[in-house]
Design a protein that fits this description.
Number of helices: 5
CATH superfamily: Phosphoglycerate mutase-like
CATH architecture: 3-Layer(aba) Sandwich
Strand content: 15-25%
Number of domains: 1
Largest sheet: 6 strands, mixed
CATH class: Alpha Beta
Structural class: alpha/beta
CATH topology: Rossmann fold
Strand order of the largest sheet: 3-2-4-1-5-6
Helix content: 25-40%
Order of helices and strands: HEHEHEHEHEE
Number of strands: 6
Oligomer: single chain
């Protein structure tokens, strides 16, 4: 008898509990989306160019990021118009059958407003002095530049309605050349 009463109580409680919101229940444009931000991969330090490409380790890191994000739905891939950022973005964009769009790293507030207006899942490839700052702007939190020696940071900014939060992740890539 006691078992029947417990089962009945659980059934009533389950019936009265509101269902979690689903994508079908959300209003148009209110679906959560993520913006991933990464600094360009290791640049070629032996180059005397003002716009160096990637080192061999950088090329491997770019492929590693592409593999890491292979199952992530992306609507767009953005990069600054520098060779090292383009070379980092291209393998990821190609894996998602997307073109790389370019943004001006000196206009982060305007670019953040555009990303929030578009409400789509995106990857942004930037620099040590812009990636953390842009993540902070998008999340409405403090963000800052980081040391030029760091290449392993990956930010995910999750936007769900008026809620925004940045998560800092670290890539598990180690160059073995």
């Amino acid at each position: 008898m006691m078992m029947r009463l417990v089962v009945y109580a659980l059934a009533v409680a389950a019936f009265l509990m509101p269902a979690p919101p689903s994508r079908a229940d959300s209003e148009a444009g209110d679906e959560p989306f993520s913006i991933f931000l990464v600094r360009h991969a290791e640049k070629d330090g032996s180059s005397e160019s003002d716009d160096p490409g990637l080192s061999a380790c950088g090329e491997l890191r770019a492929l590693s990021i592409a593999a890491m994000l292979a199952d992530v739905e992306l609507d767009r891939v953005y990069s600054t118009d520098y060779r090292r950022t383009r070379d980092t973005a291209v393998p990821i964009a190609a894996a998602h059958q997307l073109e790389v769009s370019y943004y001006d790293p000196r206009e982060l507030d305007e670019f953040a407003a555009l990303l929030l207006k578009r409400k789509g899942d995106a990857l942004v490839v930037g620099h040590s002095n812009t990636t953390g700052v842009l993540a902070g702007i998008l999340a409405g939190e403090g963000g800052e530049a980081f040391d030029e020696a760091l290449y392993d940071r990956l930010y995910q900014v999750v936007i769900a309605g008026s809620q925004r939060h940045a998560y800092l992740l670290h890539q598990a890539f180690t160059c073995r050349l």
